[in-house]
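Shipment paperwork, digital attachment
Item: protein structure file
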Amino acid sequence: MTPEEKSAIEERIVDMLRTVYDPEIPVDIYNLGLIYNIDLHDDGELKIDMTLTAPSCPAADFLVEDARIKLESIEGVKNVDIRIVFEPEWNKDMMSEEAKLELGFL
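Attachment content:
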């Protein structure tokens, strides 16, 4: 995979993550700041570190599975490994300005 191809796929990954919503929050997981790391290998292996707004989030399984299904549909992505991590602990400062505005934090 060329650097240009990798960059284009990474853009599609971010775009796809912006379509995954927590059912209880009207903001996508990317703009919520739940995605900590996106690591796309040249062989198409995709590793993502993400967190949750709370460790006991009832939508955790839904969010991970929705993200995995959508990311696996991207041409050039062969395998998706999503790890749930809690370091650093998520807080509202991790949200994008757009998300803060949508949720009334600005």
